[in-house]
Amino acid sequence: MSNFSSAAVSVAVSPESPSTPSALATRLAEAYRTVRDETERRAAPLSAEDQVVQSMPDASPAKWHRAHTTWFFEQFLLGPHQPGYRVFHPDYAYLFNSYYVSAGPRHTRAARGLLTRPGVEEVAAYRRHVDAAMLALFAESDEAKLRQLEPLVEVGLNHEQQHQELMLTDILHAFAQNPIPPAYDPTWRLPAAEHSGDALVDLPEGIHAIGHAGDSFHFDNEKPAHRALVGPVTLARHLVTNAEWLAFMADGGYRTPTLWLMDGFACAEREGWEAPGHWRQVDGEWRIMTLGGLQRIDPDAPVCHVSYYEADAFARWSGKHLPTEMEWEVAARAGQLADAFGIVWQWTRSAYAPYPGYKAIEGALGEYNGKFMVNQLVLRGSSCVTPDGHSRLTYRNFFYPHHRWQFTGLRLADYDV
Ligand SMILES: [Fe+2]
Q: Could you tell me which residue ranges the DinB-like domain spans (predicted)?
């Protein structure tokens, strides 16, 4: 089960190809089943004990991910749109609301790992209850109502796909704390990168369209599309590799304060960082904890599990920079970046801020993205555990600069042109 791909989620119906109500209902139901099944497929190798653990406040238990994504449909689809819907359990909204203040009070995030009850069987029953109600909602709704539901269903499915990725990054972090390193899937390997090299991508000065245009699915933070001045800049075609990172380490990169942002060096000292996340020494050799268990460091593989602070220090050590998200998007649109998608998210030096004229969507779902637009950095691309159909050129992922439990790496930029 080394391939985490799932069928692409596409429930949109173009205006040129009108569907009958039953065709749209079928399409919604199929997209719904595909995504919900993928969550269960990813959870299947995990024991009940695996599914309870919360290894740090930023990570959530697998059982919680399975329940929270279910609550999302109950809260935003079934409650408002299915007359007579009976909630599975009156307390689950409190347990499984994540951060939606408008949706009511919620359990403390850092205490999710203390929820030994409900157990995995009850969570599975919760999922079945909501699945049956959602499929009934699709089957019973007329076309006008289906078209009203469609954007909400798309958000719910894309939300669940985000949690599919988190479920694996979170269990990897938990397994990485275990002195006897468990393998989620013994056959798992990081996807191979395009052969590395020094190839460069020149972006001459120009004004470019940035952000999502059109009506296909996107998160609100990808809009409005707007124009930006980009270049001149040169981007590395390839991702930074483990071999390059080992050279940074050997040159004292983690111990040289002049390479680091002050907050970054303080964080590295406080956390005792001397290598990327999930690396550990075995008999004097560095190994990396992966979903396939403890593995040797492949020098040609892209470096993974580095924070923004580390990526920034590495760039300075290299005499280069991290690109902006606009530079990344322009080069990726032109098809000039190797491994833009599917291996590691790539840090940019762009603050996660609203695009000019950004407006959060109405209602409680307006809390989805907009309220996080401070103190975080944008990552572009996607990772090896991002579900298929969930990547876009305009996708803006975001994490705090000290975070490194996601599949995060980097590519470099140079302005000496
Ligand atoms: Fe969520």
A: 32-167
